[in-house]
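Q: I have four molecules that I believe assemble together. Could you output structure tokens for the complex as a whole instead of separate predictions?
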Amino acid sequence: MQISSRFTIAIHVFACMEVFGEDYKITSDFLASSINVNPVIIRKILSQLRNAGLIEVARGTGGTTATRPIDEITFYDVYLAVDLLEEGELFHFHENPNPNCPVGKNIHTALDDRLLHIQGAMEQEMKKYTIADVVNDIKKCLTVPK
Amino acid sequence: MQISSRFTIAIHVFACMEVFGEDYKITSDFLASSINVNPVIIRKILSQLRNAGLIEVARGTGGTTATRPIDEITFYDVYLAVDLLEEGELFHFHENPNPNCPVGKNIHTALDDRLLHIQGAMEQEMKKYTIADVVNDIKKCLTVPK
DNA sequence: ACAGATGTAACAATAAAGATTACAATATTT
DNA sequence: AAATATTGTAATCTTTATTGTTACATCTGT
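A: Yes, here they are, computed for all four components at once.
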């Protein structure tokens, strides 16, 4: 199973905020049209980003802005904000290994640490990329159209 | 969303083969009882491991054995065998960004490379651990009961 | 008060994982 | 050759999570 598209959608949201923020008000409808999903999905994701302190959403009047420079917002920040993993664990462990079996009783102990290391390697890599990196690439495509 | 329990189940399978292989015939029923899932689930996973060349399954008579020493079977081998990700991609991208929007048109280009690097970091870490590591830890628990 | 937004609940639709039943095919034993 | 135990696999069901949609209360500037 894959990691939910909430993650790529959230990054898309930030990209729109940066590219269009000066010329347009960034509403959930505006975002929904670029991302091509339902505005309510966007609003849920905006809520999560707001709860994580990454953005501010103007209630009533509408519009969204980042709370800090986008070169200080990493993929990891977004990943945490949109709450992709249940219990924060990447791997789904089979729930009820047999406690009367020597292997079943100890499989968790023998695996958990290593699974966390694997998850940790992924999360460390996520910290290396920022929203600014993505926006820079998009802007390159805009200024040098093929 | 989490990665399917097929992965931890498959590792559990190998651990049972190693720990019990000399004293018992490792059938899908035997495994199902230690892992505590349905035998048909086990048989599907065994099929995948067999297709990947990691094990041999004795048809008719029953029983399962690894095709090579377990210190040469990494988590990554198992991960590939049980086919956890659709299209091999860890991240689910929102399907239809608006091609008429400058951001929507280019978001894929700007993101794909970085997502692959993140996935790659996870997969590289998976190559560091073998079934033997897990079995050693389990055996420690057995010989030195608390 | 109005108009345009957001916040959120409720529920439907879709998709994937996992569970279960059933049975044909295979191999060993007697 | 028949009996037995097991694998291989199809079909179906249940459960769970995601995503989509409708509806509406709430908020804010005009």
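A: One point stands out. The domain at 5-141 of chain B is CATH 1.10.10.10 (Arc Repressor Mutant, subunit A).
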